[in-house]
Every structure is written in C-alpha cells, then in structure tokens.
Amino acid sequence: MGExxxxxxxxxxxxxxxxxxxxxxxxLKENNLSATVFCGDLGTCLSQQCDAIFISxxxxxxxxxxxxxxxxxxxxxxxxxxxxxxxxxxMKDFTK
Length: 96
What we know:
CATH architecture: 3-Layer(aba) Sandwich
CATH class: Alpha Beta
CATH topology: Rossmann fold
Order of helices and strands: EHEEHEH
C-alpha cells in the first residue's frame, strides 16, 4: 500500500482548504501518522486521486453521492476535537 492521500476541499481550493490541510497535518504529526494532505476545490475534487476527501458539511452534500472515496464532512475546521476524531477514525478504518 502506498502513501495515504487526503484531499482538503473548499469552494476554490485556496482558502479554507489550506487551513483544513494544516489542521489535518497537525493531527497526523501529533499521532505519529503519515499521509499526504493536499488542497482541492469543489469543481475538480472528484477527479483528483485521493483516499479521502475532507470537506465542510455545507459543501459535502454536493459530492457525497458521486465520490468514489470516503467523504468526511467537517462541521468546524477550528474544532481540534472534531478534526482529531474524524482524522484518526479515517486512518484507523483505512489501514484495517
């Protein structure tokens, strides 16, 4: 199995997705886990090769039924507990 690829998505791929990417990377580092985290935008995220898409709850509804990978909706990008829980759950489930 290669490197896990997590896509952090927002509307245009350069604002809140960057914040989300940094927060996911912090969680991974704190838990000695490794994954490539990159930013994406709503319009092209489904065509990018990745193992999961982390996205706001509001935008998740637009891709949930079309994505071929898990879509992880995040209610609050600044909520460390939520991000930690959802990131660790994904990593645990993915590596089973």
